[in-house]
User: Fold these one by one.
Assistant:
Number 1:
Amino acid sequence: MHWHIFCTVIDNYGDIGTTWRLARQLTYAHQQQVTLFVDDLNALAPLVPETDTTAICQTLHGITVQHWISELPDIQPAPVVIEAFACTLPEQYRAEMVKNGSRCINLEYFSCEDWVAGCHGLPSYQSDGLKKWFFFPGISAQTGGLLREENLLAEKNAFCANQQTQNVWCHQWQIPIPQANSLRLSLFGYENNALPDLLTQLSEQPHLVDAYCPAGKLQSSAQTLFPTQSLETGKTLTLGKLRLHLIPFLPQAEFDRLLWLCDLNFVRGEESLARAIWAGKPFVWHIYPTDDDAHWDKLTAFISTYAMQPALAQLNKEWNQQVLTTDTVDNIILTLPKLTQISQETTRQLSQQNDLCRQLINFVQSK
Ligand code: TRH
């Protein structure tokens, strides 16, 4: 079956990150033919370094990527069209969809709020007769699941069990090999005023800490701790027992391994959150903040649905408030083995559900 996926990049990497991952899964795991229409190739390039940001149309990893800048070339709509995150389809194309009887899915943002289960899978009636449905990612059985590659957990287990593989991988991606028995953290996030406190509290722990911060917004928040240093990718900064590694932004296909390498993962947005869930390690989610503060409801709903342990829930809240209390980090460190065990078990349980791509295909076939 042929699929067209439309994505407008609002900000950051979440929109393109999700649609690119979906395109890959449809192509590789389900042998579907996919064209991804995206309006900003510069957002795709860090995730897929082979991207030619000047090409109108290119094939990347078996997926046709069409730069959606203005008028689309004269193309027939596919039988299934994914309108990611309620982006607006081109008028002419939409009219053709109605004529052809294409099915349109509005792939929505991940959320665990109560109303989502009631809206997932509902038809969205259109005055021009377009056949359209809502599809919501989620972690409850009443929602559409999360994207998860078929062999993801097996790959993760193999990586985590093999020190040599980890070292080779670190070397390949310019990531300093963690010190023996250190506590390892990944730090992906938006700017955050709590970062200096977090790093200071970690540096005062009795054991060594390796913190990996990929190039991006959060790196700049470390500046107040290192006022005389320039924060360049590739550098390692030292504070007491802590080493802060400013590492390159990785291709999307490698990002999981950073999470697998670490004991505690800080992520942001919905796409990296899903990856942190599959990593089976305790994590802290810096949710994308909205002007109307709706993100707090979303965060609270997630913490409750995921049944996050209190110490971890506390750190999640404080990280989003950007103020840490003194014993929050201590509580995490003290309970880390237990938190890890629980995270692994939750991941195992969630992986019993069909992943989003499988659920989406089943849904489309049922229509
Ligand atoms: O980039 P984000 O902040 O995207 C956000 C959210 O999706 C939010 O909901 C949306 O409304 C807003 O943008 C406009 O966070 P997210 O969703 O986690 O996407 C990050 C992607 O970047 C994800 O696919 C993982 C990937 N990534 C890499 O590929 N390499 C890296 O080194 C890192 C750190 C991330």
Number 2:
Amino acid sequence: MKILIATAEAVPFAKTGGLADVTGALPLVLAERGSTSGKGHDVRLVLPQYAMTKNWLANNPQFSVQKIIGMDVPVKGILIKGIIEELKYENITVYLIKNDDYFLRDELYSTQSGDYDDNAERFIFFSRAVLEMLKLKDWSPDVIHLNDWQAATIPLFLKTVYKDDPFYSSISTILTIHNLGYQGVFPSSELNLFSGINPEEIFTMDKLEFYGKINLLKAGIVYADIVNTVSPKYAQEIQLPECGYGLDGVLKQRSHELYGIINGIDYDIWNPATDKEIMHHYSLQCPENKRLNKLNLIDNFHLGTKGATSISLLDDIPLIGLVGRLASQKGLDILAEIFEPLLFMDVRLILLGSGEEKYHSLLQKIAKKYRGKISVNFGYNEELAHRIYASSDMFLMPSHYEPCGLGQLISLRYGTIPIVRETGGLADTIEEFDPLSGKGNGFTFTEYSGKALLQTIKRACYIYQHKTDWKRCVANGMNQDYSWASSAMEYVKLYRRAVRQRQGKGD
Ligand code: ADP
Ligand code: GLC
């Protein structure tokens, strides 16, 4: 099959979160062994070229740009210049859409002072450029797999401005929703960005209109042949008013074409036996070295000073890690409620993240007050993230909602026990450990409250002191397989379904 993956970010070219991990890993697996015959698919990836991407290319000359083509992209009634840069990365072809006015910026979508105010224009340009590019390359994929609101207008263009062009007629589309909390909602005045489309035709309740504004994710939900999200549980949750962010009605209408496929993680990048970012390698068979990583981290981050030496900390006092966006989605507000009682316990905490200003200032205060018990690290730091996954005993994800979550999957692989709220993908992947049956891979709670979170951490700490049970729980997690192999096959099935649907053959 010919598959194009269109995304606003993908590892290693640009990343702000889990979306990039997914769109970076999935194409490689599809290209390698996607088809049932064992032969890989023809998979290509397209994303904008940001400053971050340029830096990566400069530092990785082995992946140099091989072809450059100029193009004119119709946006807001005029033609805007763009450039397609083409390169081979591992086993796939990558197209970078270049327009320095739009994309050569420090950040991808926003700065500390808020979202870039031309985000609608930037990503409508990108989506339209993707379709123009296909014709220039004379490559017509069977399916375009688009991700999140930034690429969600591609099916809208296909089914309006390009609908009578035979070149595009057999292309089917799948929209993956990675996070319904981000929809790309803009003032209706931005309708003029859709060159060649009569605004009245699409500014209706059953199309892009959303409480008087336009909603780009809604465009994808309405026009894509198939819609999916990143866990079965989240696919159910988003059809309810509590989690639907205003789109539950539209999603419900499409419920028979709404699927949930759990994400995998890249087992080459996330492997404690080979991870370049960690000092001491370990595995399920030889887990001993995990302790050395912990020792190293608590020494480096001065977490051994208060009330215990580094050595006694090793096995007696659990180290709890958190890596992620500091946003309310991630449960930071309930964590904030319990910092005092939590840090009163015999635990150590290490946090890495960046995000909302209110959490930055709160965490700064806590870090000052509890020096030696908590280490707070702001910013994006790939190396430290790996070290935290490898060194911690437990990993916190008390998310308010979580479409899939990768942190808990990475933690399982690193023998680090997830403490999670039962929502979305967290509920689908983490099961409470039961010392009697020896089953389970983590600790979970349902009620979104500091109290429930604290009780769960206490349960985990109790089991932590019972080493045989703890080792069992760790082994259960490390034994699981959340590599991309099976989820990639699920995507292939969905691609085939989309193709059949496009050809009018139904299931
Ligand atoms: P989301 O995509 O909602 O942010 P996920 O759990 O799906 O959450 O994925 C987050 C990914 O980003 C993980 O790979 C995590 O390790 C990484 N990550 C998040 N914040 C940071 C950070 N500050 N530094 C390094 N990696 C981070
Ligand atoms: C989103 C979600 C996260 C998911 C990731 C990749 O950012 O918040 O739960 O794992 O996308 O699909």
Number 3:
Amino acid sequence: MKILAIETSCDETAVAVGEGKAILSNVVSSQISIHRKYGGVVPEIAARHHLKNIIPLLRIALDEAKVSLEDVDVIGVTQGPGLVGALLIGISLAKSIAYTLGIPIVGVNHLQGHIYANFIDNPELTPPLLALVVSGGHTELVYQSDWGEFEVMGATRDDAAGEAFDKVSRLLALGYPGGPAIQEAAKKGDPNSIPFPRPLLDEGFDFSFSGLKTSVLYFTKEHKIYNRNDVAASFQEAIVDVLVIKTIRAAKKKGVKRIALAGGVAANERLRQKLEEVSKREGFVLYKPSLSLCIDNAAMIARVTYEKALRGEFSSFDMNAVPNLDL
Ligand code: KG4
Ligand code: ZN
């Protein structure tokens, strides 16, 4: 089964070609440098750049995979969650190609894609597993009992983890995107220097990071002179602590042995390191995608498309973008 996969949910335009479970090509064009001057993704600009880039990327992905468009058996495309104008570029292209070639189309949930990135790097991995999905828009603890079967055990009540990284980075004038900027500053700081709160630590599986962000704001207002690297390191440690403790608690509750990291924040070195340490100590096996599969990409969409196509779970041609699509 040859798969063409398209991802345009936010600010990366991405196309991948897969054959069964294998990924033959995976190309991404990031718009980070375009949105940097605005300090965040501007939806209208993102959509326009997707439109400009998507056809050239499609050509590159097919060339790299040595697959011609006529050989493609099924098209997978991100249906949501994401920015509606951005999603529509990918969906319109996917529908046009599928209709022209007379092949089926599969609408894919972006968050499911992030989780399935783990199955690309680890072919031996299968459900059941507990996934921590941490991205710019989401923070969710997801129990995956089987292929395509998800239970969201907890989610953020306000800011997503990535959003908190981005906002604190802006507050500290560390740059955009915030996650990598905080991570680099934190390497030069002391993570134990400022006791920022660990929100909702003892309460269930939900998260709340907006209060933590406000604590950082108050700290910077109270202390006119402070070490930015210490603030970054202490903030990162607080957020990582909460994510790690809740993930382990959720995995224990479900009695699973496998934990999977997913989403853009899964690229965070401290999170990867600490979750690895604690997972080992507590008897869990941690799976984490390689860095290029943590950020938004279409290989993860191809992997979901394969599983859904195997089961005949195709979408109709009146499929639409769903900006707040749930797992
Ligand atoms: O999954 P993703 O690429 O896009 C969404 O689906 O939202 O995630 C983007 C988020 C941004 O908030 C970015 O700051 C964060 O992932 N991020 C990181 C790191 N790299 C990216 N957060 C912490 N540490 C990182 N190294
Ligand atoms: Zn994402």
